Amino acid sequence: MAQTTPNHTQTVSGWAAHDSSGEITPFIFKRRENGINDVTIKILYCGICHTDLHQARNDWGITMYPVVPGHEITGVVTKVGSNVKTFSVGDRVGVGCLAATCLECDFCKESQENYCEDLQFTYNGIFWDGSITYGGYSKMLVADHRYVVRIPENLPMDAAAPLLCAGVTVFSPLRDHDLHKTPGKKIGVVGLGGLGHVAVKFGKAFGHHVTVISTSPSKEKEAKDHLGADDFIVSTDDQQMQKGKRSLDFILNTVSAKHCLGPLLELLKVNGTMVVVGAPDQPFTLPSFPMIFGKRAVKGSVIGGMDETREMMELCGKHNITCDIELTSPDKINQALDRVAKNDVRYRFVIDIANAPAATVDDDQICSNL
Ligand SMILES: NC(=O)c1ccc[n+]([C@@H]2O[C@H](COP(=O)([O-])OP(=O)(O)OC[C@H]3O[C@@H](n4cnc5c(N)ncnc54)[C@H](O)[C@@H]3O)[C@@H](O)[C@H]2O)c1
Ligand SMILES: [Zn+2]
Ligand SMILES: [Zn+2]
């Protein structure tokens, strides 16, 4: 049942999952009025992140239904609150995973809002007014301007959309380890999906030797020819894994399913670091020997802060980095999610919201507060 919050007066057409089948159907709901700190955005495109699949199907057991997924949003500003000086009507903007944070803690003050304890997400979060947040699988969004970024003029709005989550999620750990400004390292990217393919592009743009580590031998050619990867290791091939031992300075692990980290850690040099950004619903296997015998570290990282997101967008503009996408439409979201589950997309679905008709629903499906 959708919430009833007094100033939620704007009727919005969107697409939601209603139970753990994850099936997405048209959904009409309400958003808040544009507040003094808000911008209203006409959504043009929204990427389909693997997280949307986890959430639609309640993989993590935390989904509040109905859930309107989507946190890789691009669009155009149509309304600006009186406190907003940084955006104007007509601006090309993007919104990622953040809807609200406390604004007061040390992390918020240092623009590491992604580590704020009170962080609320763009969907399946609880906003300051107590309402459940609804994401970008919808025609319109009201967002606090502090979590909105500008999209560089030279980047297309569809292929830029996944940068808002996939992009910043892989940029942040690279930046954290100074890899955006110290070229010449040997970097491994595990899992060549939405996050992984952007990681390869960033790795190359920042001047590194990039090795893709994947279970799919069929991805080798495209990884090298198309994404510019220097090397490719099939993680199920013992000989290749053996040959790659102690060869990498840093590994970014984007795998979405449970797996063992041990053999991957063996690919790191002594004192190397693996940053895990993938979020399987089951724990990893983490044997101690590859860690202790190589003084290796395993760390996690979640999305990125707002300053980092702006920095990443500027870098993408400068290096002309966008995502490789397959455009889809709202009526095909279910097929797209099934294909994401089967790893059958190169490399990100993006929903063309701008050109889709508004969602229509039967009267009995309209939420009760309309
Ligand atoms: N940390 C964060 O802030 C953050 C942000 C976005 C997404 N995520 C998570 O990252 C993961 C990846 O997201 P994505 O959108 O890139 O997904 P994706 O589906 O596009 O890519 C996942 C990749 O993992 C590979 N994979 C799946 N199972 C595997 C297995 N058992 N062994 C090896 N490889 C396997 C797939 O082939 C695919 O290449 C998801 O779990 C998602 O929820 C985390
Ligand atoms: Zn995401
Ligand atoms: Zn905070």
From TrEMBL:
InterPro entries attached to this UniProt entry: ADH-like_C (IPR013149), ADH-like_N (IPR013154), ADH_Zn_CS (IPR002328), CAD-like (IPR047109), ER (IPR020843), GroES-like_sf (IPR011032), NAD(P)-bd_dom_sf (IPR036291)
Alphabetically ordered keywords of this record: Metal-binding, Oxidoreductase, Zinc
Top-rank EC class of the record's enzyme: oxidoreductase
GO BP: lignin biosynthetic process
Protein name as annotated: Putative cinnamyl-alcohol dehydrogenase
Single GO MF descriptor: zinc ion binding
Family matches, as SUPFAM superfamilies: GroES-like, NAD(P)-binding Rossmann-fold domains
Cofactor section: Zn(2+)
Species of the source: Rosa chinensis
Similarity comment: family membership: Belongs to the zinc-containing alcohol dehydrogenase family.
EC number of the protein: 1.1.1.195
Pfam families reported for this sequence: ADH_N, ADH_zinc_N
Residue intervals of the Enoyl reductase (ER) domain: 17-351
